[in-house]
Amino acid sequence: MSETAGDAKPEVKQASKEVKESENVAEKYSAMTVSKNSEINMGELSSVFSSVPTHKPVKKQIQFVEEKQEFSRFPTKTGRRSLSRSISQSSTDSYSSAASYTDSSDDESSPRDKTQVNSKGSSDFCVKNIKQTEFGRREIEIAEQDMSALISLRKRAQSEKPLAGAKIVGCTHITAQTAVLIETLVALGAQCRWTACNIYSTQNEVAAALAERGVAVFAWKGESEDDFWWCIDRCVNTEGWQPNMILDDGGDLTHWVYKKYPNVFKKIRGIVEESVTGVHRLYQLSKAGKLCVPAMNVNDSVTKQKFDNLYCCRESILDGLKRTTDVMFGGKQVVVCGYGEVGKGCSAALKALGAVVYVTEIDPICGLQACMDGFRVVKLNEVIRLVDVIITCTGNKNVVTRDQLDRMKNGCIVCNMGHSNTEIDVASLRTPELTWERVRSQVDHVIWPDGKRVILLAEGRLLNLSCSTVPTFVLSITATTQALALIELYNAPEGRYKQDVYLLPKKMDEYVASLHLATFDAHLTELTDEQAKYLGLNKNGPFKPNYYRY
Fold this sequence. Notes:
Blueprint: H1 16-29, H2 42-47, H3 133-145, H4 148-157, E1 167-172, H5 176-187, E2 191-196, H6 204-212, E3 216-218, H7 225-236, E4 245-248, H8 252-260, H9 262-266, E5 270-273, H10 276-287, E6 295-297, H11 302-325, E7 333-337, H12 341-352, E8 356-360, H13 364-372, E9 376-377, H14 380-383, E10 389-392, H15 402-407, E11 412-416, E12 435-440, E13 443-447, E14 453-457, H16 463-467, H17 472-491, E15 501-503, H18 506-517, H19 529-535
Parallel strand pairs: 1-2, 1-4, 2-3, 4-5, 5-6, 6-15, 7-8, 7-10, 8-9, 10-11, 11-14
Antiparallel strand pairs: 12-13, 13-14
Cofactor: NAD(+)
Region (Disordered): 1-29, 64-122
Keywords: NAD, One-carbon metabolism
């Protein structure tokens, strides 16, 4: 849910041969419609993805987490549930803690210490409490109501079972919305084993509901560092079952399989990755010549970038801040670090409520965009003593340093909307001279010797997904894209995809968008034959070239 500063992305080269192939794809795809009565032909769907251009490897290198690290702990209860959490780059952002009705603090015992069995007699799972199944099922049913496009895809493709034989191991946020995706994959024929990509993300009741339905889920809210990696290993390393597909969010699962089970990794038919960090890791492997399977970059699809990042964060930033601090934004001075898609959404939302918003940027293009949108572009040190709220959303590390934290005013709110917890130097705050006071769930007051307090939200992890909820409709867009990418990679004939990272074609982005237009009773204008000829387009799309920037 985040991006690098300025949303810098590798360029996509469009060779003349690929243009011709894209036109052929469009003609073949034109027979597919999105009306309620239409049927999807999986053979046609698979052919849409042929010869998809790939990104160049990005220059920025994301180093793998080679060793498990732990920060020094401030006072807390002993045992596995420590406030010294996983610092894996992907595991430290999270979906809603507020969304889960069953907080992990209700029961201090670890699920690893007890044996649970579902109604079918299976114990191949590890969740907080299997008895929460009914509650979780209601949550999933509510989510389905606002994920009509994904449910429509499930109903249309269910009879063909395009994922029959697929053994998918997934590492994502386990929420009601993700459960709808998992159950869609199962309905399409896949076997699934799942774990959480974040220690705070799991809705315990939803995990229980999935386990009751036979999905091997290993996740609970409030996992320790050791729990996090144990859950991943239990998903991958099980007798009589070997994954052939990976759906990842952040790259931890991919990295674990690559490092610990190289023989399994070589037999994977495809990887689908939805985060900036995970995509960077894949490009790193590709550049080093170590990526031995094809991978689909879902993160840089238009529907993911615009809707999951811009529009989603425009709403969820306010939700997270309000739930945790009850702050009134009118007249407050706020600095947003980074003016990519996430930064744009956050800045627009705060400005609309009357806040005075400053923006920091490293990219002159994004900086100019901020100026034209009415924001003052500054260096953080210029306003560090003045601002009431600091929000990071760059994807970088050490955006807010200890020196800057020392100079903040009393009561300053500090939070992160980027992908990982590296943006704020939280580790430097775990020192004896500073006192940590937990005032409510995901809200800590860090107290300096002189009495100054800085309000730190979610320990520097992803605010909206740790402290509030994300709109279900937005997650439907991302989940539909993920499902289609898995279908394509699994059904693609041998040789179509090399050992590289691929983008979804523009036509597929348009298809995902068209599935969701019905929610708004939207009616698109159709080109006449004359207009299509004048523009050099197929009447059924794609309507923009791959290099078009929305």
